[in-house]
């Protein structure tokens, strides 16, 4: 019996030390992991939205603490005034799971500059077609003061043939981003001014 107790104690100590070591490593490497995620995961979407290298935009980032999550917001300034925001959003309910998208908003014009896909798990040849330019360009120039919708629901966004679930997730994520900008615009601009 004492051998079993000794083995349980030793294994518990090993598990405890391992857990503590992994927690410390995660805390210490967290900023570097976030920096790499920005560059290699969010970076391509930001390059397409802002039409400039990601390295120029990545330094212009604030994290806004919303009700149930932290939302990264990237921005550009023209003559010292914030002009464009890129808001990361989650399009819930895609066929292969949730989509992570980036929605570009021109604050001066009150219009979207586009929608880019950051990551997805959609079916190749069907839902994965959300990354195609022909689908994404439908967001360009749409007003930011009204929700968007698929054409089947009376909106202007044509869904991808055979992938209406994925298309709907992109629309839902966009509408969440628009609501976020409306509700948190003052906080976003205040956070940017404090940089």
Structure description:
This protein has 195 residues and is α+β, with helices and mostly antiparallel strands. It has one domain. 45% of the residues lie in helices and 24% in strands. The protein is built from 4 helices and 5 strands; from the N terminus they run H-H-E-E-E-E-E-H-H. It has a 5-stranded antiparallel beta sheet. A hairpin with a 2-residue loop joins strand 3 (81-94) and strand 4 (97-106). The model has no long low-confidence stretch (mean pLDDT 90).
List keywords for this structure.
globular, 5-stranded antiparallel β-sheet, 4 helices, 5 strands, alpha+beta, 195 residues
User: Unreliable runs, pLDDT <50, ≥5 residues?
Assistant: none
Strand content: 15-25%
Alpha-beta content class: alpha+beta
Mean pLDDT: 90
Shape: globular
What Rg is obtained from the alpha carbons, in whole angstroms? Answer: 21 Å
Oligomer: single chain
N-C termini distance: 62 Å
Element-by-element helix/strand order: HHEEEEEHH
Major sheet description: 5 strands, antiparallel
Percent in helix:
40-55%
Number of β-strand runs: 5
Annotation field: number of helices: 4
Q: State the domain count.
A: 1
Task: Report strand order across the widest sheet.
Answer: 1-2-3-4-5
């Amino acid at each position: 019996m004492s051998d079993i107790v000794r083995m349980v104690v030793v294994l518990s100590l090993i598990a405890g030390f391992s857990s503590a070591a992994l927690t410390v490593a995660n805390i210490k490497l967290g900023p570097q992991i976030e920096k790499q995620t920005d560059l290699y995961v969010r970076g391509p979407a930001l390059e397409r939205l802002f039409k400039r290298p990601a390295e120029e935009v990545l330094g212009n980032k604030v994290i806004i603490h919303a009700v149930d999550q932290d939302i990264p917001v990237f921005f550009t300034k023209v003559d010292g005034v914030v002009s464009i925001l890129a808001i990361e959003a989650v399009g819930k309910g895609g066929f292969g799971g949730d989509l992570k998208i980036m929605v570009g908003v021109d604050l001066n014009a009150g219009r979207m500059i586009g929608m880019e896909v950051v990551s997805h798990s959609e079916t190749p040849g069907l839902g994965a077609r959300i990354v195609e330019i022909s689908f994404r360009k439908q967001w360009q120039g749409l007003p930011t003061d009204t929700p968007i919708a698929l054409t089947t629901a009376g909106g202007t966004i044509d869904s991808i043939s055979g992938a209406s679930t994925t298309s709907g997730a992109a629309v839902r994520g966009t509408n969440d981003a628009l609501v976020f900008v409306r509700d948190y615009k003052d906080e976003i601009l205040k956070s940017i001014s404090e940089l």
